[in-house]
Sequence to fold (271 residues):
Amino acid sequence: MSAEDLSVLLQKSDPDRRLAALFAPAQLRVRLFALYALNHEIARIADATSESLIGEMKLTWWREAVSDLYLETPKVRRHAVTEAMAPLTDRLPQAELIDLIDARFDDISAAPHADLDALMDYVDRTSVRLIRLALILTGGELPQQQIIDAGRAWGLTGLMRAFAWRARIGRAPVAGDYLTELGGTPAMLAQGLGSGKAKAALQPVRAIAEDAARAFRAAGALPVEAVPAAGYAVLTPGYLKSLPKNPFEVPPERALLARQARLSWLSLTGR
Fold:
């Protein structure tokens, strides 16, 4: 799959990460596209199958396919994304990529997040980790806390935007223990019921996302090398503002021109 093909794929599946990646030099851009395409493939599995066993088999395939790339004599399976990832093994740690995949097994199991700590762990293993890996590819450096703030702000906001779907697969982005205190259940949310309880259960999650977004911006200007890897996190406040009052409603899309303008300003000023 060429860089153009990867770009088209991400334009549909992960447009904001793609927009930020466009500010990288061409060689680095291809690396980011490959990483984001892998993330897309593993993230969509829970949505693409209703059978947990099939989902587990697909994730296991990806786990083994990535592991094969790190063999003494690398084995590149016939898939456009594995072929795109193959040149990156001398830069990206195998263990980090494997845990990025392993985190998605929880989506397949449809196990509710037990509490806020469990939800944060999931976001740290997915959204935060993806920023850390992208920074390795671009050579950008950020303080660890700024990486965490960017990843949590973006990851939690994305989960809230996808609330209806996440609830349907039994992985609503709320603390299970708090939902129980409110008199709600994952089964209720899966049926699209209890919008009031769902909104209340989301309040602590939203508060963490808003705090993380503010802390990310307050940490200072982004170095130019970090913009393609983490810059999309500056779009978080806009997405938070557009969240519907009813969590089960589909949020509106933000205008592409506004997102492009915001990222262009970031690339010029670091802010």
Remarks:
- The CA atoms of residues 20 and 232 lie 6 Å apart.
- The chain has 17 helices and no strands.
- The radius of gyration is 18 Å.
